[in-house]
Backbone:
């Protein structure tokens, strides 16, 4: 009987301990659920504040200076930035390689918004020191308040690293990495001297995780993001503002296979949205549907990110893009 009593007592004690564990797990579960709910609610509030409430107040970008410099400003996102900033009263200096497009864009801006324009014809794919010395000389007498580091190159189609031509690899380095570094190096000293300035750097959502088959493009955009965030930390006390943009797909010339719509904006729609986010956030995708994609990325393991990114690219291109098999 003593053995039976001991067994019953042991079972009862185990039951009490299990009940305590259940109560503890219930508390932990409640705390976790509360944290998740509050985090989600905060994200929703932030998104609403950034992409909807911010539209009600328009920022005065002229307070940073009279001139804005836009690289790659003759097409797509760059041209949209030129138009929007000119619309808001800034004089515009367009930096690009096609002289005819430079003249046409500058003339359009001058006629439409009666601003002063300047053009600098350079080929950023060269990446030479002399190229940036020339740009610096041409900007010397201008009060540059805003720099938009927009120019960039991307893959023609998803490829294995060794299938990307060497000339294309140098373009990624010279255009996507060197340009943003050296253009910032050129305009930043006088901004620091005046204790005001805004530098907008175009990264990409492709930098969220390493992205195979767009390897060098993804890596170069990660560089832009890190550079911008580091510089913001270094120079925000000196009155300089850095905004990093990490957009998803936008209907532009390099992505001409994508048709604009409610989910995928054209360049003009995107830039208006991105400029409206200024003052509420300094690292953003720039557009509300892109922000939703970013939120989804935060909850995806890297392997699913790679797969979903490839499938999305294939769908958007109507199945025309296929991997080159080795």
Residues:
């Amino acid at each position: 009987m003593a053995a039976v009593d001991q067994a019953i007592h042991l079972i009862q004690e185990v039951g009490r301990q299990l009940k305590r564990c259940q109560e503890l797990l219930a508390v932990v579960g409640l705390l976790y659920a509360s944290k998740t709910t509050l985090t989600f609610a905060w994200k929703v509030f932030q998104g609403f504040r950034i992409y909807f409430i911010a539209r009600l107040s328009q920022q005065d970008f002229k307070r940073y200076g009279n001139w804005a410099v836009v690289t790659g400003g003759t097409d797509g996102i760059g041209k949209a930035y030129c138009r929007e900033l000119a619309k808001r009263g800034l004089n515009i200096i367009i930096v690009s390689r096609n002289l005819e497009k430079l003249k046409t864009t500058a003339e359009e801006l001058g006629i439409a918004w009666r601003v002063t324009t300047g053009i600098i014809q350079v080929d950023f794919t060269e990446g030479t020191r002399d190229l940036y010395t020339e740009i610096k000389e041409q900007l010397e007498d201008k009060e540059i308040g805003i720099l938009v580091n927009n120019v960039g190159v991307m893959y023609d189609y998803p490829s294995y690293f060794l299938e990307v031509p060497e000339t294309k690899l140098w373009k990624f380095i010279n255009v996507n990495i060197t340009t943003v570094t050296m253009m910032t190096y050129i305009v930043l000293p006088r901004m620091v001297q005046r204790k005001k300035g805004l530098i907008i750097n175009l990264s990409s959502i492709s930098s969220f995780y390493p992205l195979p088959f767009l390897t060098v493009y993804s890596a170069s955009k990660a560089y832009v993001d890190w550079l911008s965030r580091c510089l913001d930390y270094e120079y925000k006390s000196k009155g300089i503002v850095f905004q990093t943009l990490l957009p998803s797909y936008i209907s532009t010339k390099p992505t001409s296979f994508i048709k604009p719509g409610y989910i995928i904006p054209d360049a003009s729609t995107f830039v208006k949205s991105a400029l409206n986010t200024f003052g509420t956030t300094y690292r953003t995708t720039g557009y509300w549907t892109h922000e939703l994609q970013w939120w989804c990325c935060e909850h995806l393991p890297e392997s699913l990110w790679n797969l979903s990114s490839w499938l999305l690219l294939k769908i958007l291109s109507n199945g025309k893009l296929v991997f080159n098999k080795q």
